[in-house]
Design brief:
The complex is a heterodimer of chains A (112) and B (113). With 112 residues, chain A is mainly beta. Chain A is built from no helices and eleven strands. In chain A, the strands form two sheets. In chain A, strands 2, 4, 5, 6, 9, 10 and 11 form a seven-stranded mixed beta sheet that branches. Chain B starts with a strand and ends with a strand. The chains are: A mainly beta (112), B mainly beta (113). The interface between A and B is medium-sized, with 21 and 22 residues.
């Protein structure tokens, strides 16, 4: 089992640019989560999907952030336009239900 | 809103000692708790979980204790090894609420040999 696959592993971009983060969940899992990790705020839930439908997006910071899950095997998190305060590690996780989550390796985003 | 918190941000132990990492939670409705280990540059990895109908659960070298009276969760690691050095997170959820795990801010465990 390949686990949760995220890409890219690192992203460096300039303020104002669009950033797209990608995630392939574990096959058979029906829930997918996007978390953001910073030293100050720890692991914060951004959004989660169940059966490809967004269930809770209350953690999405603002309209600059959007997430999609067009099918059971793929999700994207987009930031447009990006700002320096968006710099963080973004994790995707998947599970069957909402209990034991399996995390990807994360995308380290730096917005200059 | 309510959130999970941690008592200590760092814990330093000697190799071979037992480690205890503590976690306080504030949502009395939470009925599922889980511990994750995060090594540098990696995503969190599942260690052990426990439901609220239990007060203790054991894994390989790890034990989770749940005290619902004082809303306290702890992770005990027996015979701590250098490879146990990492950040440890507790998280909570309300199983039937359709909500996602809420994570505490983490405790850094440093094991010296």
């Amino acid at each position: 089992d390949a686990g949760v696959i995220q890409s890219p592993r690192h992203e460096v971009t300039e303020m104002g640019q669009e950033v797209t983060l990608r995630c392939k969940p574990i096959s058979g899992h029906n829930s997918l989560f996007w978390y953001r990790q910073t030293m100050m705020r720890g692991l914060e839930l951004l959004i989660y999907f169940n059966n490809n439908v967004p269930i809770d997006d209350s953690g999405m910071p603002e309209d600059r952030f959007s997430a999609k899950m067009p099918n059971a095997s793929f999700s994207t998190l987009k930031i447009q336009p990006s700002e320096p305060r968006d710099s963080a590690v973004y994790f995707c996780a998947s599970s069957f239900g909402t209990e034991k989550l399996f995390f990807g390796s994360g995308t380290q985003l730096s917005v200059l | 809103g309510e959130s999970v918190g941690l008592h200590l941000p760092t814990l330093s132990v000697q190799e071979g000692d037992n480690s205890i990492i503590n976690c306080a939670y504030s949502n009395s409705a939470s009925d599922y708790f889980i511990w994750y280990k995060q090594e540098s540059g990696k995503g969190p990895q599942f260690i052990i979980d426990i439901r609220s109908n239990m007060d203790k659960r054991q894994g390989q070298r790890v034990t989770v204790l749940l005290n619902k009276t004082v809303k306290h969760l702890s992770l005990q690691i027996a015979a701590t090894q250098p490879g146990d050095s990492a950040v440890y997170f507790c998280a909570e959820n309300i199983n039937q609420a359709g909500t996602a795990l809420i994570f505490g801010k983490g405790t850094t465990l440093s094991v010296s040999s």
